[in-house]
Amino acid sequence: MNFKVSFIAERKQQGFTLIQLMAVVAIVGIMFQVGSALFADVVHRKVLRSTALQLEKRIGFIVQQSKGRGEAMAICAGQSTNCNTNDWSLGYVTVTTNPVSDTPGKVEVVHRVEALDPVVNILSNRQKLVFLPGGFLESNTDEAFYVCPIHRAQFSYKITVSASGLVDFEELKGEMKCDQISV
Fold this sequence. Notes:
It is a single chain. The protein is of the alpha+beta class. It has a single domain (about 20-180), classed as minor pseudopilin epsh domain (minor pseudopilin epsh fold), CATH 3.55.40. The protein has one helix at about 20-70, and strands spanning about 75, 90-95, 110-115, 120-125, 130, 145-150, 155-160, 165-170. A four-stranded antiparallel sheet has the order 3-2-1-5, covered by helices on one side. Strand 6 (about 145-150) and strand 7 (about 155-160) form a beta hairpin.
């Protein structure tokens, strides 16, 4: 006896259903949003740290140059060699200077850092720091710079310059906003 059995061929499904595809797109979108926010955070932290380290190195350079050249040097807020602004967001300029005069007649611009990144704020209570020929601060007191983000409370840095010309760099911990720092 011959039995003939016939099977109905099942069609194999290939690819994704529309619902599966929509779920994958939604998940990828959420991951992209979270990832882009984290990436922006990493970039801002790197910009802040880089700016703070650059300022620290510049101050150390000025100390060494004032010793080596045997002349007074200053770092001034802004781009004017007269050191007449306290707006460090405009950048800063390193000049040779006469520490007795507030408006030096003839200065040599040694280094210039123009406008800073818009996410960075530099705070100081000084328009300029003058280093005497031995690398000592003219003010004979410790001075501090704060490099902090404009809109955030984390990842701020403090650069302290002692009266003897020693430069110290530290990352501030905790939630300290730029407008809460008294300089």
